[in-house]
Design a protein that fits this description.
By secondary structure, this protein is of the alpha+beta class. The chain folds into 2 domains: 2-53; 58-240, Muramoyl-pentapeptide Carboxypeptidase, domain 2 (2-Layer Sandwich). The protein is 49% helix and 12% strand. The chain has 8 helices and 7 strands; from the N terminus they run αααααβββαββαββα. The strands form 2 sheets. A 5-stranded mixed sheet has the order 2-4-5-7-6. The protein has a two-stranded antiparallel ribbon with strand order 1-3. Strand 6 (196-202) and strand 7 form a beta hairpin. The chain starts with a helix and ends with a helix. The model is unreliable at 1-16 and 25-53 (pLDDT under 50). The structure holds zinc ion (ZN). Zinc ion binds at residues 163, 168, 170, 208.
Length: 242
């Protein structure tokens, strides 16, 4: 009735002809429609993005051709060698261009890590990130892969993969929950700061991290552990060493 009539030009003209009380009522109805329509739009726009935030990788971790090229370009522009064979990796280790990832109280390696070596900068990243991971997640960080000679890359590896240089490490993705939520936001933060390029891979599921710190420069990570968590974990360390 009133609302429909008001949406046509003739309706507006006839509304003007209405008596004052009827006009006031009609305007109130129209105002109601104008208020309802934008808020319905806003809700429709909001819901899916909230779902995306909760259930999947943040934009930074989604991976793309650009992301792969960024890592590859970093390696190229810093003249990092792509080690071809296991012998080349051994030679790089002997020259300390690659250093061993030995594991400690804060991180461990799976048995599947064929070559537990990385560049000094990639190892520094693991050693700096792992204590924060442990403080938030309550378990050591797990490295599932590191340097991989070109001839030992998996079949589905991207030809521009930087694993053969030793700047990349793969980390086990924790199960869904507060730990994974923190890991995703921490890696996104480090990527936005230009320290790493991170991708949450799906086949197989893991977190791929390339450390984009120039050779010889120190790897300095911001404190990303929430203050409350840091206090709690400091307390538990104090208790356990008592
Ligand atoms: Zn990887």
């Amino acid at each position: 009735m009133g609302a429909v009539t008001l949406l046509t030009a003739r309706g507006i003209v006839s509304a003007i002809d209405m008596r004052m009380t009827r006009l006031r009522t009609a305007l109130l109805v129209l105002a109601g429609i104008l208020v309802i329509v934008p808020s319905a739009h806003a809700q429709r726009g909001k819901k899916p993005s909230a779902r995306v935030q909760r259930n999947s990788r943040p934009l930074e971790l989604r991976g793309s051709k650009e992301s792969v090229e960024k890592m590859y370009d970093f390696a190229q522009s810093n003249h990092l060698p792509f080690y071809l064979s296991p012998t080349n990796v051994s030679d790089a280790v002997a020259q300390q261009k690659l250093v061993p990832l030995t594991g400690d109280a804060t991180y461990e390696l799976t048995r599947g890590v064929g070559y537990s070596y990385a560049t000094p900068e990639a190892r520094q990243f693991v050693q700096a990130f792992a204590p924060q991971y442990l403080a938030v997640c309550g378990t050591p960080l797990t490295v599932t892969s590191a340097a991989r000679p070109v001839t030992r890359q998996p079949r589905n590896a991207n030809p521009h993969s930087v694993h053969p240089t030793g700047i990349a490490v793969d980390l086990r993705r924790p199960a869904a929950g507060p730990c994974l939520t923190w890991v995703r936001s921490a890696l996104a933060e480090l990527e936005n700061k230009g320290i790493i390029e991170a991708t949450e891979e799906r086949r197989p599921v893991h977190l791929h991290i390339a450390v984009l710190v120039r050779p010889g420069e120190p790897v300095v990570l911001p404190q990303m552990v929430p203050a409350m968590t840091a206090a709690r974990s400091a307390l538990s360390v104090m208790n356990s060493t008592r």
